[in-house]
Amino acid sequence: MIIVVANQKGGVGKTTTAVTLAHGLAIQGRDTLLLDLDPQGQCASALGLVQEPGVFNLLVGGQTLADVTRTTGRPRLALIPGNKRTATAQVVLNAEGFELDTIRQVLRPALRGGLELVIIDTAPSVGGLQEAALFAADLVIIPTAVDYLATEGVVKVMQTLDTLAARQGWQGSVLGILPTFYDNVTRESQQTLEDLKRTFGAELILPPVHRATVLRECGAEGKTIWEKAADSRSAKEYADLVWRVADVTP
Asked: What are the chain's domains?
């Protein structure tokens, strides 16, 4: 199963969510591959690893999945890292008129070979690799910061998915919208959360993840929340997401 973490607005906790979810599922005993399609390459950094042009080499350089897949030092969790050359890969592929199902096609051998889950972190951009990732998705998670521009990026992702379903036959589903950087003390956070529920339906809004210094520290130290502060509120909140995903994946 392919799970895509996407928003067409940056700074919403996409990479934190993708990395935390992937490691959480691996801890549960699921063989999980984390694929970094964001040219910032922060999935590797968040796991304490070196950024590499793995995505470029896979999509443009002719290398195989085995060539570009890296161990993470964490049982059952592997990574295909990216870096700024991922943006070059998108330019090249767009120039060549690549097929919308490119991402699913390159992942198919691994999924057929027994890999259980692929978690894809995407760039905050429209079209190109993000659109191909969404088309490949069986399940989509949309993180969004709870600020006054929160709905904008979510709306764009939902519109893209509607277009893919109507014109290209996409058959995946949205697990939910994940409010991030939530602060229950501020009026803005509370109001934005209510606006999200009114706009997209309360049933689609996942329990929020609160703003927390420990999550920033995790990224800086190359650790996940499960390694740094497994008893923290942040860990408990992300554990809810992990279990929700586990409940709907075979």
From this structure: 2-245 (3.40.50.300)
